[in-house]
Amino acid sequence: MPTPQTGRHDLRTVTNQAPLLAGHNVVTSDAALSDAVLRHADTATLDSLVGLGAEAGTAEAREHGMLANENTPRLTPYDRYGNRVDEVTFHPSWHWLMERAIGHGLAATPWQEQADGAAHAHVRRAAGFFAWSQTEPGHGCPVSMTYAAVPALRADDALAKEWTPLLASRRYDPGLRSLTDKVGALAGMGMTEKQGGSDVRANRTIATPTDGFADHPGEWYALRGHKWFTSAPMNDVFLVLAQAGDDHDRLSCFVLPRVLPDGSRNALDVVRLKDKLGNRSNASSELELDGTLAIRLGDEGRGVRTIIEMVAATRLDCVLGSASLMRRAVAEASWHVAHRSAFGGVLADKPLMQNVVADLAVESEAATALAMRLAAAVDAPHDPHEAALRRIGLPLAKFWVSKRVAPLAAEALECLGGNGYVEESGMPLIYREAPLNSVWEGSGNVNALDVLRALSREPEVLDAWLTEVGAARGADDRFDAYLDDTLALVGAWMGEPEAMERGARRLAMRMALLLQGALLVRFAPAEVADIFCASRLGAGYDGVFGTLDGGDLAAVVARTTPVA
């Protein structure tokens, strides 16, 4: 029997609690990420991320992430005199996070670096975005859209020349000022509308040609309509879709600045901010356009084709962001069980807890490997194989990786028990954020159907996928059998569009798992690849974590646990 103690000090003495996960390097303590950077880039690239990783692992960064979510953005539609101002104000912690994300070159910087001949610019940026997003995921949205805007802007040389240097700047400049006074800029996008959502061809915003500005060339239009879900309304420029042409039936893309060339404020009204499940630090809004001026980007009627490069880049960030959430969740879980004892021993040494954490770790590593592989494809823009792999790999990864975050976050939270259910742990923030990337840039069905569209219209994408997964054939019998079964499924469905559409999710899952499996079989430690193939590619896989049947679990848990 424990000896009774007296005195308040004894009541308040804390034992057997895991210390705060802080003081570690988010890059160098992540073996899966570091290995991927070395695989697709070089030691110099990894070394360039050490400072970012150290800052991301500080208690200060963690605190700013929590404060930015606790103190959500506020909309002020009118000033005290009744003037329409539509100002969204953010907590200082939001600006702290944004300043460092931009300063670390996580926005559009790699496009400029790539144009200047730098190697591995997008791999470096992807690894940095993955690591820094673990501080707080919400501010990654404007960072991502700024990154993604550049390839779309290249449809017009003049617009690209005007905007790219500001979007690629490493200086965070959130003020509402004329471009001539700006040292950095942020971009957003406005695609969806309330009546159509993902079906952007149902958009009703209309674009009417109008006079522009004598000293600013371009085809100017006045836009009138409503945008249902536009994040970061305080950004400097937006790519939006609207119906142009004489009958307003030609969906086109437009560049919409918040400040016009004459220095006046554009007519861009923020109707309200969305009250969201997660992503609460980020301001997502409904916008009203009434005489709002914008320059057409690309040809009339080619809006989707013009903006698709922006969508592709943001989908990559959805994969990176999902993998980042997974890594943060697994890091918290593995750290906790390494420092918490129960039932006579450290939790990490308990066979069933090892099973759970090892399973979570394998899921996280598979997501990291696939995300970084797709980022590497952006570093080879003129390679046909890389372009085709990016085309098919992005919707596959977006579909699968973003869907795995929610169950993983729930299981990781459970590893902390009641401690994981309280806000101070950070796990509720991760859990609320988990479904976001499944919805952003096309839900699961949209991405699964995009996979079918690519397979049916672009035969080179299947060849690229086959080349990628075929590189692992012969290394693991389970992988080979799963690949053969998947190819048989594709063959059986070819020419059967209804069956193909009905099974689109099943096919997307299998093709994504094979991409992940190929990377792990070829490059990951044997214990990681073995567990992945035995569980994910085995018969009857149901997705329940902690049901592994063998494997070197202790080695996998040790590989994923942060070292502070």
UniProtKB/TrEMBL annotation:
Species name: Nocardioides acrostichi
The keyword Flavoprotein is assigned to this record: yes
Pfam family, any one: Acyl-CoA_dh_1
Keywords annotated in UniProt: FAD, Flavoprotein, Oxidoreductase
Gene Ontology MF terms in the entry: acyl-CoA dehydrogenase activity
Domain Acyl-CoA dehydrogenase/oxidase C-terminal: start-end pairs: 301-455
Cofactor(s) for this UniProt protein: FAD
Domain Acyl-CoA oxidase/dehydrogenase middle: 189-290
Superkingdom as given in the UniProt entry: Bacteria
UniProt protein name: Acyl-CoA dehydrogenase family protein
Residue ranges of every copy of the Adaptive response protein AidB N-terminal domain listed in the record: 16-174
Family: Belongs to the acyl-CoA dehydrogenase family.
